[in-house]
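Regression check, S-adenosylmethionine case 293:
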Amino acid sequence: MTLSLPHVSAARIHAELLGGDYAFRLDHAVARYVSAVAPWWPSAVQGLHHNGGRLVAHLAARGLDQILDLGSGLPPHRGRQVHQIVDASRRGARGTRTVYVDRDPHAHTARRIHLVDQPNATSVLVDITDTEALFSDPAVRELDFRRPVAVLLHDVLPWLPDGDAAHLVTELRRRLPPGSVISLTHLLPSPPPYATTPLVRCYREAGIGLWPRNLTEITAWSGTWPTYAHGPHTGAGAVPVCALLLRAPGPGRFTRPAFWSSSRRGAFHGTAPSPRTPRVNSVPEEAIRAGAR
Ligand SMILES: C[S@@+](CC[C@H](N)C(=O)[O-])C[C@H]1O[C@@H](n2cnc3c(N)ncnc32)[C@H](O)[C@@H]1O
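Current build output:
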């Protein structure tokens, strides 16, 4: 007989940092540990999540009504789920479709429960690094790949090793039709006061891999696709996170949302939701690139 021992879950820790209460004791302990070591981290997570929802609304209002949300996590306790944001932005138009994908069974089950009686959204339990399994899943195949699809990779790629992250984005670029977009957010390596090395160490001690990457590494995934950046400091002063949008060449164009900074160097000092959000001057991008992992 094999015993199933409790283990920590990146999805539950993330939900805890967003203010949810899915966490088990071990998850809670890790969430407290990382928050103590990197006090800026919870507000960075909240800022990324909040801005991710705003970007979905922006894309949906411009006609992107098919969403593939990879590494979708647990349904938020506060705020709307992605398909609800899409529906609100499309003002009840027919044909919207959201597919949530996560490898975490708790995230998948909780999402399914939240999606009862929601015919325009579904949840899939798949490891997104297995792109064959991802694209052969019946729910994913139900998306209409003759029309643009918006793929969300919000706070997901930093949790994948280099090879898996590069492979996933490359496969997405190969398979997505013209006009599609890949929206991703990422943690950047940074020196103090937002040092990422201790944060990475805490997660790794808990058995969870975390890989901050600099903008050069991240934008290398774009290939020939036009890439639009919000950051490197998005949502919470100089906290080292960025948001990028990769767009498949094709008809139409991407309009930068008003809440995005107007240049790569600009900082967005907007409506990050936490009162603990630090407010400091931007550090130069070079400092982030040079930051230790
Ligand atoms: C930090 S959470 C982000 C959740 C959500 N995208 C958001 O922005 O709030 C990262 C999620 O990615 C999921 N994840 C990590 N690696 C994955 C993989 N290889 N396949 C599927 N999901 C994965 C985790 O289970 C977790 O739910």
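Comparison notes: The chain has eleven helices and seven strands. Residues 10-11, 14, 49, 52, 71-73, 102-104, 107, 127-129, 154-156, 159-160 surround S-adenosylmethionine (CB under 6 Å). No diff flagged against the previous build.
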